[in-house]
Specification:
This protein is an alpha/beta fold. 43% of the residues lie in helices and 19% in strands.
Length: 361
């Protein structure tokens, strides 16, 4: 269970702190018996990683700081194996901890390494991107990629705490900030219409890092995820709604060799899911248009490819490996209306292809 922005978490919950100037809370979240810490950050976060290392050292911690590649290149079994080797060589025990300091790929990797070392050591997630704050770092999902697909190898491992310091977003490129907003919009469509209203009222205000709108959007998106995950930690039922837009989105990422930003792929994926639901007679065309309008206002893509069919076989094959698939039966999270998600079971290949044609060109 997740408790948003509170220091009193109880035995079965963890805190997600959201605000400015919060890095000091990282050490506060650690127990006194934690001596060794593996601090994992991306190559682009060397300066900030060094500052966090110095802060932790000032509290008497022994820090082993490792930089990993930016983006999805970090989520590779060889990278994880290198971190396991370090943990073994330095004698990390179950009372020691891992900290993931970076975007969603870093927190996925750090969480996976923590989940698998000694069958589970503590991890604190410190996301440095909007995508990480509202999605990857929250909820206890960890994973790495394989040639067969994204996040097909992983574990459920809840963090000790998540610290979302909004000041870290000031160095994030505007395009990456906008991409992260896709997961926020997703939470609006599946559960919290107030998110959509905030975005539609003033799209530019949503991307002002030190403004009140962005903070409210982060808090609302994290609360949506907290509410869902608290009902279904291991993704066996209701948690699947958080995958809205991800079946097609993950397929795009794989087919494109992970060169697409995750948020961009999810944006197209939500548009695809909306078109699919409309073609299946489930969703009103007006809500499909609302998808395109809201996402486009943030500079996010709602179309994929140049209109040709050459990518379709690979996309369909990738979707068949989606974690929601049961046997040969594809399953999609779709909407009946805003904040009314449901599953679409076993749509025909013809319907899937028709929805694809609606998002290409």
């Amino acid at each position: 269970m997740i408790v948003v922005d509170t220091g009193d978490t109880g035995d079965d919950a963890y805190a997600v702190s959201i605000g400015h100037g919060l890095l000091e809370r990282v050490d506060n979240a650690l127990g006194d018996d934690v001596r060794r810490i593996l601090l994992v950050h991306s190559d682009s976060m060397v300066t900030q990683g060094t500052k966090l290392e110095n802060t932790l050292r000032s509290h008497g911690r022994e820090i082993h700081r490792v930089a990993v590649p930016d983006g999805e290149d970090a989520k590779h079994i060889q990278i994880a194996a290198g971190l396991w080797a370090l943990l073994g060589n330095e004698g990390f025990t179950r009372t020691d901890a891992v900290i993931g300091f970076g975007g969603g790929s870093v927190t996925d990797l750090a969480g996976f390494v923590a989940a698998t070392w000694l069958r589970g050591v503590q991890v604190i997630q410190v996301p440095t991107t909007l995508l990480g704050m509202v999605d990857a770092a929250v909820g206890g999902k960890t994973g790495i990629n394989t040639a067969e697909g994204k996040n097909l190898v992983g574990a459920f491992h809840e963090p000790l705490a998540v610290v979302c310091d909004l000041d870290l977003l000031t160095t994030l490129p505007p395009r990456d900030l906008a991409a992260g907003m896709a997961e926020v919009v997703k939470c609006g469509f599946i559960a919290d219409p107030a998110i959509l209203e905030l975005v539609e009222r003033d799209p530019a205000a949503t991307l002002v890092v030190d403004g009140p709108v962005l903070r409210e959007l982060v808090e609302r998106a994290v609360q949506v995820k907290a509410d869902v995950v608290s009902q279904d930690l291991k993704d066996s039922s209701v948690r699947e709604i958080l995958n809205y837009g991800h079946t097609f989105g993950h397929a795009v990422e794989q087919v494109e060799g992970y060169r697409w930003r995750h948020g961009d792929a999810v944006s197209v994926g939500m548009t695809y899911a909306a078109e699919l639901a409309a073609l299946a007679g489930v969703l009103s065309p007006d809500v499909v248009l609302r998808h395109r309008s809201a996402l486009t206002s943030l500079g996010l893509p709602t179309r994929y490819g140049d209109g040709g069919d050459e990518r379709w076989p690979a996309l369909l094959a990738a979707m068949r490996r989606d974690k929601k698939t049961r046997g040969d039966r594809l399953r999609f999270v779709v909407l009946r209306d805003v904040a009314q998600p449901e599953r679409l079971e076993g749509p025909s290949e013809e319907l899937l292809h028709e929805a694809y044609r609606a998002v290409v060109g």
